[in-house]
């Protein structure tokens, strides 16, 4: 019988460069990339199929913009399910990739060993800017996490969701009825962003006429400042401070309201656990709630349409049986996995998947890989709208950090597809989507479609 690894008397060697020994600089050192003739999707797929695992930094946005990461994740699941990446450690300090379903769940549910604390780096592969740390409840550990999360939980209570349903439906009808027929248009802009921004504005009781600001703040909060066209680090910080200032106006209007409303700002302003948050913590929670309300739904709205076009037999199955909408919504969310990863920091030495993880090591749970793990999901690379146990996916995470708004996201998608099927027999995707260059937000910048006249 093979000997199981165990923690011995000697501490495991640290893999991630410690925060104390790492020099945070901006701009980051140049990224090391493989010496390929070009970085087309075809070249990257060929490279990832055979490249030594230790030579690949799968966090490089080019793999996500080209949708070429799948082959590498399958190799990691099969050959090295808990694997350390030191390539480009001078940019991100190095990180463990956790790629199998069972190992991801083990990390996601062990809050005593694996921390989300913003001051240890937070929940994304790259640490928060050391001069701009935004604590937010998803980037907190217990007990503070629990009391802050509880402050906003009522926004997605059963009674609130019931109250939202008619509003979501009427807006969805309005947006769909306004779409052009017989001409190409961008589904992301006209439908995905439009519907999610309207919902976000409602949740915050933010002026509807300015709702696209919410989308913009969400995009810049998660955008890679190194990608051409994105705001630079200082510009990004200035924009988020502008967001804070605008929301402080709403806070001041509502904090002394003798009859608090049911919006998120009022909930935070009137709850003893969040009423006296420092400004950076208020900003952090705003970013969390805006990004959380924006990205899952928006990118699943787009992904679902693309997946049905890629799988015409499933589209035909849906047209024949509208009762499949609910399981299809879950399958869309699994297949899309709108947030590709979450990161934790080890609080103590431990063993994971046979590997020694040292205190301080950075551990990245790749949900995008776990949702395609053959050990947990049958035929996971197939998009199947009537899949048994459709809600068995990890796109919302597990444990105390499971997505607060998961039921609201599902409700929005369900209503959208009910209204689409009531109007359109077919919505045709006319070209490949333009994807977001990010290893965190797995989404779309545009998707051109046409509705037959």
UniProtKB/TrEMBL annotation:
Transmembrane segments: none
Family recorded in the similarity comment: Belongs to the cytochrome P450 family.
Coiled-coil blocks: none
PANTHER family noted in UniProt: CYTOCHROME P450 YJIB-RELATED, P450, PUTATIVE (EUROFUNG)-RELATED
Keyword Cytoplasm included in the entry's annotation: no
Top-level lineage group: Bacteria
Species this chain originates from: Sandarakinorhabdus fusca
One annotated GO molecular function: oxidoreductase activity, acting on paired donors, with incorporation or reduction of molecular oxygen
Keyword annotations from UniProtKB, A to Z: Heme, Iron, Metal-binding, Monooxygenase, Oxidoreductase
Protein name: Cytochrome P450
């Amino acid at each position: 019988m093979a000997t199981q690894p165990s923690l011995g008397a000697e501490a495991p060697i640290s893999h991630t460069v410690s925060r104390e020994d790492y020099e945070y600089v901006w701009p980051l050192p140049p990224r090391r990339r493989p010496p390929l003739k070009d970085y087309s999707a075809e070249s990257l797929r060929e490279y990832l199929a055979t490249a030594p695992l230790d030579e690949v930094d799968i966090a490089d946005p080019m793999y996500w913009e080209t949708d070429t990461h799948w082959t590498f994740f399958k190799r990691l699941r099969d050959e090295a399910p808990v694997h350390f990446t030191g390539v480009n450690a001078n940019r991100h300090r190095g990180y463990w990739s956790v790629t199998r379903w069972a190992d991801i769940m083990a990390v996601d549910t062990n809050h005593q060993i694996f921390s989300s604390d913003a001051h240890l780096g937070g929940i994304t592969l790259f640490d928060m800017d050391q001069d701009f740390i935004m604590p937010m409840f998803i980037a907190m550990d217990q007990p503070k996490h629990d009391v802050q999360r509880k402050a906003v939980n009522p926004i997605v209570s059963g009674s609130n969701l019931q109250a939202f349903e008619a509003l979501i439906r009427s807006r969805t009808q309005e947006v769909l009825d306004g779409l052009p027929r017989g001409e190409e248009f961008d589904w992301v802009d006209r439908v995905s962003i439009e519907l999610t921004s309207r919902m976000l504005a409602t949740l915050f009781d933010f002026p509807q006429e300015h709702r696209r600001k919410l989308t913009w703040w969400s995009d810049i909060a998660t955008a890679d400042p190194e990608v051409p066209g994105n705001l630079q680090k200082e510009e990004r910080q200035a924009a988020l401070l502008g967001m804070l200032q605008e929301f402080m106006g709403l806070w001041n209007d509502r904090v002394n309201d003798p009859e608090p409303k049911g919006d998120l700002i009022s909930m935070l302003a009137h709850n003893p656990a969040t009423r006296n948050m420092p400004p950076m913590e208020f900003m952090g929670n705003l970013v969390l709630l805006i990004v959380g309300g924006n990205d899952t739904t928006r990118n699943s709205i787009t992904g679902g349409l693309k997946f049905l076009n890629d799988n015409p037999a499933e589209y035909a199955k849906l047209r024949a049986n509208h009762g499949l909408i609910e399981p299809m919504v879950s399958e869309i969310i699994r297949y899309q996995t709108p947030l590709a990863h979450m990161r934790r920091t080890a609080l103590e030495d431990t063993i994971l998947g046979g590997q020694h993880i040292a205190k301080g090591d950075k551990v990245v749970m790749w949900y995008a890989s776990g949702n395609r793990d053959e050990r947990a999901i049958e035929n996971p690379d197939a998009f199947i709208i009537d899949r048994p146990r459709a809600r068995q996916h990890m796109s919302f995470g597990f444990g105390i950090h499971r997505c607060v708004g998961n039921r609201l996201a599902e409700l929005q998608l369900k209503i959208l597809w009910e209204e689409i099927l009531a109007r359109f027999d077919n919505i045709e995707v006319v070209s490949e989507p333009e994807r977001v260059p990010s290893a965190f937000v797995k989404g779309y910048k545009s998707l051109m479609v046409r509705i037959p006249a």
